[in-house]
Description:
Blueprint: E1 9-10, E2 16-17, E3 30-39, E4 49-54, E5 63-66, E6 71-77, E7 86-88, E8 112-117, E9 123-128, H1 133-138, E10 143-148, E11 157-166, H2 181-185, E12 193-196, E13 199-200, E14 204-206, E15 211-218, E16 225-229, E17 235-239, E18 242-247, E19 254-256, E20 261-267, E21 275-280, E22 288-295, E23 325-333, H3 343-348, E24 353-355, E25 370-372, E26 377-384, E27 390-394, E28 399-404, E29 407-408, E30 414-415, E31 417-420, E32 425-431, E33 436-442, H4 445-449, E34 453-458
Parallel strand pairs: 3-6, 5-10, 11-15, 14-22, 23-26, 25-34
Antiparallel strand pairs: 1-2, 2-11, 3-4, 6-8, 7-9, 9-10, 11-12, 12-13, 15-20, 16-19, 16-21, 17-18, 17-20, 21-22, 23-24, 26-32, 27-31, 27-33, 28-29, 28-30, 28-32, 33-34
The structure holds copper (II) ion.
Amino acid sequence: MSRLPRRALLTAAGAALLPPLPASAAAEPRRLVAALARQALLGAGRPETGIWAYDGTSPGPLLQARQGETLRLRLENRLPQPTSIHWHGIRLPNAMDGAAGITQPPVPPGGDFDYVFAPPDAGTHWYHPQWEAHEQVARGLGGALIVAEAAPPPVDRDLLWVLRDWRLQEDGGIAEDFDNLRDAHYAGRLGDLVTLNGRRAEDFPVRAGERLRLRLLNAANARIFTLRFTGHAPLVVALDGQPVEPHPPEGDLVVLGPGMRADLILDCTGTPGDRAQVVDETYARRPFRLLDIVYAAERLRAMPPADAVRLPPNPVPEPDLARAEAIPVVLAGGMRSMLRPGMQDARARGLAWTVNGHANAPQERQEPLAVLRLGRSYVLDIRNESAFSHPLHLHGHAFRQITRNGRPVPHRPFRDTVLLGPQERMELAFLADNPGDWMLQCQVLEHQHAGLSAMLRVE
Ligand SMILES: [Cu+2]
């Protein structure tokens, strides 16, 4: 059992520098208090924003663990609503998954709940509420959970960028239109302020010759990030925390739908005094500069190290593709979908999206989409028959992304969330080795809240 540091060190760029893990200590739960807080999102001299936060900050405290060691985390709910915590990306026992209404009752105001699990996989993961998540995440709840490799690869700095956006009112307060129908039926709740580690992004200082490990996490409700590191050639070494064959991102763009993570090795190949932009190109007509990489006057060394960085594999079981059974999954809904099967029923219940023709109200006991046999392999054959993008997240497992639109996916990465563009099709293979009721949900939280959610039962 490791004791977890209360907060990350912050650099001038607002990037968390990972402190070394403390030595193992006695088993007492680490408290995580969900409560109202205030944060200067807009910067100095501007009104603070009333937010909901873990331990008073958004993102919440950086939780760190050692692979395979038991974590004990006590959620104390001081919010005016019930809540829960989902440990996104962690393969854990079903009762610890935090899918309130499905795997546990929500934790009432004033209540607490102990989450106890031993993360089997090293990597960049995260935690967030899974009860009224569209509102609670929009108000600020969420944070990173990093599980360290036994022998992390040598880098000069190991940094975390938690990216998200906020929809604010003129006075700096959170816009409270969480049940806005347009968000539910279109692309979800997009904000008007993007933050990096809870602040407006500023210059990002580096030194020539430096090698960085950059852990990116998209903690937004709905915003997609598509990052170009101008003048640099980052290598992707992990996706959703799972190691992958090191490779340049497709088209030099690092794409992160909500809930998704990417670990990059960024070699600082510029020269002292250089500036280089990191640009988000998701919304092609409105690209925006996230920040500038700014080189110090002094070099760290002549060149970044020449050796490649490769992360050790995690113990994810390999699906048996030859014997895998296909499970068709059809996503539909949103605007201009009234003629789809099940949509009239969904709309009558105030919902906007269906999975295989059925809309599931969130947080409600539901029939499984499919019942899977423990120890068997399955291929989720997913078709997005809507005009919108969906980051689809499976709880409790990591799957191999096998095909995209009928073509093999390079490196077949293990992931827990995939971004399906409009009309896209993907095949995801996994071994059902974790018994329980597992959500398969859209991580655009307004979509999930409006029906884009299903459950797979493994027994
Ligand atoms: Cu969606």
